[in-house]
Write a structure and sequence with these properties.
With 240 residues, the chain is of the alpha/beta class. The protein is 40% helix and 15% strand. The chain has 7 helices and 6 strands; from the N terminus they run βααβαβαβααββα. It has a 6-stranded parallel β-sheet with strand order 3-4-2-1-5-6, sandwiched between helices. Helix 4 links the parallel strand 3 and strand 4. Bound molecules: 3-methylbut-3-enyl trihydrogen diphosphate (IPE) (2 copies) and magnesium ion. The site of one 3-methylbut-3-enyl trihydrogen diphosphate (IPE) has 10 residues, from helix 1.
């Protein structure tokens, strides 16, 4: 547990919100906003290591986002596929390990294949751990983890008295990730929308009115520098 002032954000998580409004404000189709949003992802991924970030987790599509129009959903999925195809070389070259969390069974087989491919291709990279949440919902993840835990109990791999926070967290999609230190949400909304429900229990939060397509590495730098002044107590009473 690190409460020293001036510390870095080891694990940054971002709820990238506001693509639709960015486009609508300009009289453009929502998908134009999603496309612009993907360009900002490229910028932030490249800027993150310079700002001391080692883990970057991005909320790209929630389990609730299936409630949008088919046109928007298909358009977003196509953007994911294109991002993976176009960015694979650059990510590998820059030491970025890319992973995904969320339930991928519901995604198109072609997209699943691309996701598996880039995970394997960048598995050796270690400068930045990039995790993209697609078809991700905190409640869904916890429910799937309970199912996995039950299976472990049923087959004898785990006994009831071995159920604790560690063995439970090992059943989550984020089993290989540390908990986030800071969660940023863009677009002026003050909610978590089902993001990292278990993992962000002790995260710090920052909310910015900036719509995701307008978000910049400069704004990220300002937010990260503010994080250094936060006092993280983790329930303790600090001396002095
Ligand atoms: C975030 O932007 C991207 C996704 C949720 C897929 P939105 O599409 O939610 O943009 P707004 O909130 O409608 O402006
Ligand atoms: C949260 O944004 C999900 C992502 C950024 C992927 P939403 O736009 O879906 O959230 P709500 O509907 O405003 O809560
Ligand atoms: Mg939104």
């Amino acid at each position: 547990m690190d409460d020293a002032p001036g510390r870095c954000v080891d694990h940054l998580a971002i709820i990238m919100d506001g693509n639709g409004r960015w486009a609508t404000n300009r009289g453009l189709p929502r998908l134009v906003g999603h496309r612009r949003g993907a360009e900002v992802v490229r910028t932030i991924v490249m800027a993150a290591p310079r700002l001391g970030v080692k883990w970057l987790t991005l909320y790209a599509f929630s389990t609730e986002n299936w409630n949008r129009s088919t046109k928007e959903i298909l358009g977003i999925m196509a953007i994911f596929a294109r991002y993976i195809e176009r960015e694979a070389d650059r990510l590998a070259m820059n030491g970025v390990r890319m992973r995904f969390i969320g339930d991928r069974d519901a995604l198109e087989p072609k997209l699943q294949k691309l996701m598996d491919g880039i995970e394997a291709r960048t598995a050796h990279c270690s400068l930045l751990n990039l995790t993209v949440a697609i078809n991700y919902g905190g409640r869904d993840e916890i429910t799937r983890a309970v199912k996995m835990l039950t299976q472990k109990l049923a087959c004898g791999a785990l006994s009831a008295d071995q159920i604790n926070q560690e063995s439970f967290a090992a059943c989550l999609d984020t089993q290989d990730l540390p908990d986030p230190d800071l969660v940023i949400r863009t677009s002026g909304e003050f909610r978590t929308s089902n993001f990292l429900a278990w993992q962000a229990a002790y995260a710090e939060y920052e909310f910015t009115p900036t719509l995701w397509p307008d978000f910049t590495a400069d704004e990220l730098e300002v937010i990260i520098s503010r994080f250094g002044n936060r006092i993280r107590r983790f329930g303790r009473v600090l001396a002095g």
